[in-house]
C-alpha cells in the first residue's frame, strides 16, 4: 500500500533525502527501530541517504540483475556484435521499403511476421529480446540487406552471429526474473535466497557444448550477484525473510545459521507488544489459543 507521496522540490542530495524519509516516517508515527527493510535503486544519493539513516536496505533485484548482466557482458566481441545488431535494427526502423521487403521475405521463408526490437538502455531484457529477434529473423535480414548494395555491409557476419547466440544462450533463462522480483503489488524479498540458489546451481552453471563466451558471461553474472549479496547483514535479512515464508522456511539457509535465525525470530516475536484482550460484559476471558511457529 502506498502510504504517502511527497512533493520534494529540494536538491536530491543524500542528506535531504534522508531527512525527507525520516519526516515521512514520523508523520505516520512509525518508529525507525521497527522498520524492517527499505528497497532502493542504485543511485549514489539513495545509498548515501540510507547510510545516514542507518536503515536496513536492499537494492531492487531488478536493478541489481540489470547491473550484473551489463557487467557480465563487458567484452569487445560483444560490443561489436551488439553495435551491428543496433545498426541492423535502425536500418529497418528508418526504411518502410525494407520493412515491406522484410514482410515478403518472411512469408517466402516461412518465418514469423515479427518486427525487429529496439534496445532500451535501462532494461537489460530489451537487449536480450533484440538479440533473440535478430537471430530469429537472420535469414530474412541477410536477404533484404544483401539485395541493396547500400546496406550490404550491415549483414551480420558469422562471427557476429556466433557472439549473439552465445549472449542469448547465457541470459535468456534470466528474462523471467526481472519482472517477477520487481513487483509492486506483492512482497518478493523471500524469493531472493531460492533464486540465487537456482542461479548458482542450475541456470548459470556451464553446460556441455556451450561456447567459452557463454560460460564467461554466466560466470561474470554469478560472481557479481554473489558478491553483492554476500555481506552478513544482507544474508541475515534474506534468511529471516525465507524463514517467514511457509514455502521455503529453512530450505535455503546455511545449516550453521539455522539455529541463530530461529532464535532471532523467537526473540522478535516475544518482543512484540501483547494485544490486550477485551472481555464482553457477562463473559469470562479465557486463555488465548496456542499457536506453533
From TrEMBL:
InterPro entries documented for this protein: RNaseH-like_sf, ZnF_BED_domain_contain
Region (Disordered): 271-293
Protein name according to UniProt: Zinc finger BED domain-containing protein 1-like isoform X1
